[in-house]
Specification:
The chain contains 6 helices and 17 strands. With 293 residues, the protein is of the alpha+beta class. The radius of gyration is 19 Å and the shape is globular.
Amino acid sequence: MEKDQIFILKDRGVIYISGEEAKDFLQNIITNDINKVSDTRSCFSSLLSPQGKYLFDFMVVKHKQGYFLDCELNQINDLVNRLSMYKLNSQIEILNLSNEFQVAVISNEKFLSLNNSKDDEGITINFRDDPIFIDPRNKKLGARLIINLEKLYLSIKKLELQLEDSRKYYELSHKLGIAQINTKNLQEKIFGLECNFEKLNGIDFKKGCYVGQENTARMKLKNKLRKKLVPIKSDKTLKVGTDLNFNNKKIGQVLIGEPYPFALIKLFDPDFSEFKDKEISIDNVKVKLIDIS
């Protein structure tokens, strides 16, 4: 990622949650601690099923009197509906602002050239009243912006940025083992810990109750993590649901297909030493796991 590049992520959407009970509402349902989020700090979090299975993941960013949730666009309506289900009598408002705000990414180098910036995951500053923050999952993913569409191109000009193809950004994300495209395919099929959310700073084990907390805490306490989501690559198209085999044994299954495929892999060894950097097969097609350990 070069200093003056900007990637506009048109497949991301923005929800805004506001109201006097917005903070308590989010604290009771998401996997991370909302108390970490302030005008100067943002976080990555998720919403799980009561059984601890993956439903949604998103960035949580303080904005004025409420919070932005930066989520995959094709999941926005479903996430709004799920949040509304938990709303009950809470004094909050849930708005889909995807037609008003755009998510984009710049380099850490560019971010660190701005006033009040620091080289720390999640650190957040404002530029023309819009938040910019270093990706709380992994600093190598640069800094994210949530920009009002009316300001977008003027902000790009003021920051002296050049538009770049977002595929380069998603290729980097895939290489780092961070799924951001077609995550709907993971819903109800994989536990939050299997999504690597602990490594990605998306789960707080000290915050107390949230939806799916009991099973998540039990898996952590009893070291019951037996599978994890891993990026894979192949010269051929990989279909969702196809089994992965190594030495004639099933070791996993493709959950996200092209263009950035991921598979849920059994943890025979925590560091994948048994088949790391070795080819495995899918219907006689050679596939390689990308090592993210």
